[in-house]
Amino acid sequence: MRTIFLLMLITLSEATIGVFVKLTDGRIPIQTLNFYAVLTAAAFLMIALPLATGRPIRVPWGNLKDTLVIGVLIAAQISVFNYAMTLVPIANAVIFWSVAPFFTFIFSAIFLGEKAGLGHVVVFGIAIVGIVIAKPLAGGYMMGNLVALADGAIYAAMVTYMRYEGKTETGNDIAWSMLTAALVLSPALLIYGTGNILSMVDNERLGITAPAGLWALALGLVSTGFAYFGISIVLKRLNANVYSLVDIIVSPIVASTLGFLIFGEVPAKGMIFGGGLLLFAGFMLTRMMTRDRRDIAAHPSQGEA
């Protein structure tokens, strides 16, 4: 029961990314905001993970390359996703990001030798229909939609690399990867400045006026730090593929709902129907990949054939 509750909190925290990005109202340059978010998340993980796992944070000397590579990929993925949130409604960003399982499958086929069957082809066809209906190049949101699609590819690259190296997000190494991400993004302070963190931002729907820095802090603590912390705990109790199946459907729906409630964002009909097909196809592909990996694990000689 506690695992399910934590999974719900993770899903909600991930869904708040776009909310906190938009609540800063552009008072902080997005590049600097990304740095603030990952730095805050790294500090949170450095404190919270040892308390939760009972293991101290130690420099992963034996796993340094993987930790650094994953940190660079985290920096890229978070930066691109948050940037997409500044260009399009939340629903657009999360729905087009949900192509990640398809990029994961493509990368896995290329780099891990996983094979495609008829079922995979059918699911890809459904996804293509969904993208066509959603019209990513129409409605004045072309750039943001394409950025969100690109972020799906970056996220898939990170997942594929972690699978290739046999890594998960369950260890304390994720705190060092997040710190690496912060170091990668730190030049933003010199290039774009610190931003107006004390500038007050008003949101009529929430009835709240707060400094932009507060929302930047929430983005780092809630949307980034707690999300990675929760994932590291949940994946010790729940199969990673089960988590992916829940995340690919629930998080975009919750995020889109928050976009409507807090900012009055109403997705176009094409986005609703096309996005629904895309989410369904992503769910089915993730489920099929889960089954395929389970079969290969049970019959390793078949996977090598």
Instruction: Give the helix/strand class.
Output: mainly alpha
Q: For the largest beta sheet, what order do the strands appear in spatially?
A: 1-2
Give the mean pLDDT: 85
Order of helices and strands: HHHHHHHHHHEEHHHH
Strand fraction: under 5%
Helicity range: over 70%
Shape: globular
Number of helices: 14
Give the number of domains: 1
Task: Using the CA coordinates, give the radius of gyration.
Answer: 19 Å
Count all strands and give the number.
Answer: 2
What composes the largest sheet? 2 strands, antiparallel
Span between N and C termini?
41 Å
Low-confidence stretches: none
Secondary-structure blueprint of this entry?
Layout: H1 2-15, H2 17-23, H3 30-53, H4 64-87, H5 90-97, H6 100-111, H7 118-134, H8 142-164, H9 173-185, H10 188-192, E1 200-203, E2 208-211, H11 212-234, H12 240-263, H13 269-298, H14 300-303
Antiparallel strand pairs: 1-2
Search tags:
14 helices
Tell me about this structure:
With 305 residues, the chain is mostly helical. It has one domain. It is built from 14 helices and two strands, in the order ααααααααααββαααα. It has helices at 2-15, 17-23, 30-53, 64-87, 90-97, 100-111, 118-134, 142-164, 173-185, 188-192, 212-234, 240-263, 269-298, 300-303; strands at 200-203, 208-211. Strands 1-2 form a two-stranded antiparallel ribbon. A hairpin with a 4-residue loop joins strand 1 (200-203) and strand 2 (208-211). Helix 2 packs antiparallel against helix 11 and helix 12 packs antiparallel against helix 13. The mean pLDDT is 85.
